[in-house]
Specification:
199 residues, 4-stranded parallel β-sheet, globular, Helicase, Ruva Protein, domain 3, TOPRIM_RecR (chains A, B), homodimer, DNA damage (chains A, B), Dna Topoisomerase Vi A Subunit, Chain: A, domain 2
Chain lengths: 199, 199
């Protein structure tokens, strides 16, 4: 008799575990879903079940894949001899949206952290070093976040790759496109000034 | 080959249609789901499919139900001769969380709006009048939002029910529990003063 409420409450509790949704907004989302159950809820449930079943981690780079290997690792056109190292699949997606990078990726899945017991093994850094040899890589681009943890991890990887015949680069730091100096932090302005280019 | 990305993009597009999620937060939510696909994504998909299939509108009051009639309309203990009129199922849930009301509900599904062509028919007001007679209702509580639209609709319902042997009431307006006068709008303070009670 009270089954309907229980199931809806359970659905709300599950939705509330998504990042960006709290108990209140999850309730609002579920109500919206129930109102649009034919047009939105049913297709969403179906697509979610499908992705839950098929998606997995690429055995090579850590990207999300349907098979054992992701689209990018499978694509011979992406074997440019460049590997872009990112912290997260979200960062890989951001790079792909940019569309400027034509090589392959290596997703660390986090940053080095002594506190959380995340070492080089956990981040797949030995696997990266192995790939550098096996795939004839000429350049490793460290596209890690400009945070202390990201930069510590970048330094560790750069040291681990030292002595090999390859370029190690990182993303340029400076004023973002459309950025206004007045709203930028001092560190960014200093970095942009240090890396100034002739006009 | 690019099937994985297409399906994930489609899932993101569906998630972005939820209230409170935009394209960016939908992407973040989907990434989180893929990471927790066994523990969160699969059960969420299953529960969503289940609710999409079973949930419907209560034929009597407009609440969400599994059968033709909702739990509250089915429960003889809730036949107290009181009907609480709310705009939305979310408002019904809010009333139920309060736990103070023991009667039944009537969910309008909106407010009167000439612009959006929402008339009394669309809000089930004739159905409400019919219920008042059929269920021996002694009190109709107009728990509509304290907005212009909500109050216009409340006045319309009060007029439509005039001349019958029943009390028509509305929720009290005043200072919320824990509210600080300094942070309240002038209208609320005025309403609370007008409705002041002996201490």
């Amino acid at each position: 008799m009270s089954g309907a409420r229980d199931e809806i409450e359970e659905l709300i509790a599950l939705m509330a575990r998504l990042p960006g949704l709290g108990p209140r907004s999850a309730r609002r989302a579920v109500l919206h879903l129930i109102r649009k159950r034919a047009g939105l809820m049913a297709p969403l449930a179906q697509m979610m079940a499908h992705v839950a079943e098929t998606a997995r981690e690429c055995a090579c780079c850590g990207n999300i894949a349907v098979g054992a290997i992701c689209d990018i690792c499978e694509n011979p056109a992406r074997a440019t001899g460049e590997i872009c190292v990112v912290e997260d699949v979200a960062d890989l997606w951001a790079m792909e949206r940019g569309g400027a990078f034509k090589g392959r990726y290596h997703v660390l899945g986090g940053t080095l952290s002594a506190l959380d017991a995340v070492g080089p093994e956990e981040l797949g850094i030995p696997k990266l070093i192995e790939r550098v040899g096996a795939e004839g890589v000429r350049e490793v681009i460290l596209a890690l976040n400009a945070t202390v943890e990201g930069q510590t991890t970048a330094h560790y990887i750069a040291e681990a790759l030292e002595g090999r015949d390859l370029r190690i680069t990182s993303l340029a730091q400076g004023v973002p496109i459309g950025g206004e100096l007045d709203y930028l932090d001092d560190g960014t302005i200093q970095a942009a000034l240090r890396a100034r280019r002739s006009f």
